[in-house]
Amino acid sequence: MLENSYCASDVTSLTDKDQTTVSKHLKVRTESLDATENMINENTDVTGAF
Predict the structure, then answer these.
(1) What is the per-residue pLDDT for 28?
(2) Whole-angstrom distance, CA of residue 49 vs CA of residue 33
(3) In what helix (H) or strand (E) does residue 49 lie, and over which residues does it extend?
(4) Residue spans of alpha helices (H) in 1-50
(5) Side-chain half-sphere of 34: how many Cα atoms within 13 Å?
């Protein structure tokens, strides 16, 4: 999904949260995006339309 990969330590300088908090939130968001993508793929017919 992302064109570039990022590490939690890349983001911590942009927020007042520590690396552990940022890492946890990135993990949850990534899992959510993966689940959404899987749901979309499961509901796509052979022509690629919904």
Answers:
(1) 92
(2) 20
(3) none
(4) 8-11, 19-42
(5) 6
What per-residue confidence (pLDDT) applies to 5? 72
Residue 23: how many CB atoms within 10 A of its CB? Answer: 16
- Half-sphere CA count of 18, side-chain side, radius 13 A: 1
Tokens of 39: 């749901």
Written as six digits, the tokens of 49 are 């339309």
What is the torsion angle, in degrees rounded to the nearest 10, for the CA atoms of residue 31, residue 33, residue 34 and residue 37?
Answer: 160
Q: Report pLDDT for 9.
A: 76
Average the pLDDT over 10-15 and give the result. 81
Structure tokens at 30: 């990534």
